[in-house]
Structure formats: structure tokens, C-alpha cells
Amino acid sequence: MRHLRWLLVPLVVIPLGWLLVSGFGRDPREIRSPLAGRTAPEWTLTSLDGETLSSGDLAGRPYVVNFWASWCIPACVDEHPVLSDAHRQLGEEVTIVGMLYNDRPADAEAFLTRYGDAGYSHLIDPDGRLAIEFGVTGPPETFFVDADGIVRDKQFGPLTPTLMAERLATILPSAAR
Amino acid sequence: MRTWLPALAVGCVLALIALGSVLVLQPGSEPTAARTDALARELRCPDCQGLSVADSPTASAQEIRRQIDELVTGGATDDEVRAHFVARYGEWILLAPTAPLVWVIPFAVVVAGAGALGAWLVSRRRPLHGSPVRPSPEERRRLREEADVLDA
């Protein structure tokens, strides 16, 4: 009976300790996307400028779908220059698309006036239907789709220049340079 | 002639009641709404903290509810509706976990705890009610002598 106590250490304490350490090391809000490796949802939406854009228009070209909102502060403000820089530097190779998440177009326009409009399209997702198709839980969330239309990566939370380079490398080998 | 008139009247009234109940109750619509409600209670609202789609007023929850209704009306089974949202959000969207281990672990811990407690209690009581120490013949003789002295 007495030697059984020593078995408790490897059998109970070590697994529990491992569970706690691994649990504290991750963001409980972050959910792995089941979309990774699958075809991205199709969409046809209207931009803030009134133009119609669809996923079909981007066929054969890698693209980035960034769900954001003017009320998502500071995360969306923080990542805005990262997306703008990527559009300016890699706009020829990759298309960046902003998707309004549960936001009013007028508020989104005011955000772009204040923090700068790099010139890529921002689309209106009227009922949040596309956000549900992508499994979005809250902005900012960004999906990286390769030239074959397959979702290769997802960023939960704001993008930093390093994260942007890492994620873009999954759909655009030249971005890893 | 007059004898079958009341029977005809009663028959007509009963037929009207039956027709009315079929038209008013509309079998099929009530189960659809009930199924949508039940499924909405099972799915997590994506942009809330621990609320079901049924309990949340957010735009996302309303849209998911609308999609559940659309799927149910379109003939999807409950499992197909759940699978539709799991394909987008993963199992996170289900409020009740599906992994059997998650349900078994709490019971296993309770049983193991009860077993450990029982074993501990038994090990504590053993010296009192276990095999008693029997006096040696020498001790027995001395005890008898002591008792004789007291009795005298």
C-alpha cells in the first residue's frame, strides 16, 4: 500500500502538471480553424466604394481576408498599418480584402479616414453570413487563401509584421524572403 | 327523416372541428420551431462569453438561428445541422462536448476518490478489529493469579 503512494507522482501529478502548463500557455479564446486545408467559402459582396467583388474574381491568385470593425480597438487599429504595408509592398502578388464584421459602413469609412486607407477593398457582409462561413468569433481574424482557393492559415488576433510575413509565406513563397 | 337529422348535425360539427384543428395546428410547423429552439440551445454564440445562440441577441447569434431554421425547414436532420456549424467553427461551437472521455473522467475521479477513502478507512480500523493479540501461556497464568488475588 505504501509503495502505491509513489506511483501517484508519475500517474497523477505529472499529467496534471503538464495539463496546467500547456493550458496556461495558450489563449482560451483561440480556436483552431477547421477550414485550414479546405476550399475557402465563396462570396460575392459589395465594397464601401459600391463595387461588386467576388471570390471568383480572385481565382488563380492568393488572397488575404481580414475581418475587422471600427469598434475593434485597439487590435484592429494596431494591425491596420501591417495590412496597409503588405498591400503597398506585395499588392502585385497578393490581394488583401477587408471584411466588415458587424459594423456600419459609415463608421468603417470614418476609421479609414482617420487611420489611413491603403486602397484595398473593404466589403460589407450584411448579415454576417460570410463571417459564419469562415467561422469567425470576433475581429480581428485573418484568413490566408492560396492561388488554388485553399485556406492555408488563419491569424486569430492582431497581425504584427512578423506574423504577417510568416502567414503570407504559407500562400506566397516570395514573402518569406 | 327527423331521427337522423341530429346525427348528421353532430357529424358535420365534428368534421368541422377536425378540419379546423388540422388547419390551425399545422402539424410540422410546431416541431420545426421546437427543433430550431433546441438546436439553438446546443450551439455556442460565436461572439459571446459562454452563451448559447438561443440566449444571445447578437447579430451573429441571430444569423446562426436563421440558418438553423433554414436548414431544418430544408429537411436537414439535427446531426446535419450540428455538422454544418462544426465544419465552420470546429467542435468549439457545440456547448456539450462530444469526446466520451470528457464525460467519463469526472465519474472516474469520484470512483477513484471513494476507493482511496474506503481503503484509507479500512487500513485505519484494522488494528482495532483485526487479529487481536492473544496472551501467551505465561501472561495467562499471571492474569489468573492477579484475578485470584483481587477475588480473595
* Helical amount of chain A: 25-40%
Order of helices and strands of chain B: HHHHHH
Radius of gyration of chain B: 37 Å
Structural class of chain A: alpha/beta
Report the portion of residues of chain A in β strands. Answer: 15-25%
Number of strands of chain A: 7
**Arrangement of strands in the largest sheet of chain A:** 2-1-5-4-3-6-7
Shape of chain A: elongated
Our Rg estimate of chain A from Cα atoms comes to 20 Å
SSE order of chain A, as H and E?
HEEEHEHEHEEH
Q: Which class do the helix and strand fractions of chain B yield?
A: mainly alpha
Low-confidence stretches of chain B: none
How would you characterize the largest beta sheet of chain B?
Answer: none
Distance between the termini of chain A: 62 Å
Oligomeric grouping of the chains? heterodimer
Low-confidence parts of chain A: none
Distance between the termini of chain B: 120 Å
- Total beta-strand segments of chain B: 0
Number of helices of chain A: 5
Pair of chains with the largest interface and how many residues each contributes: A-B, 18 and 18 residues
Q: Major beta sheet of chain A, specifics?
A: 7 strands, mixed
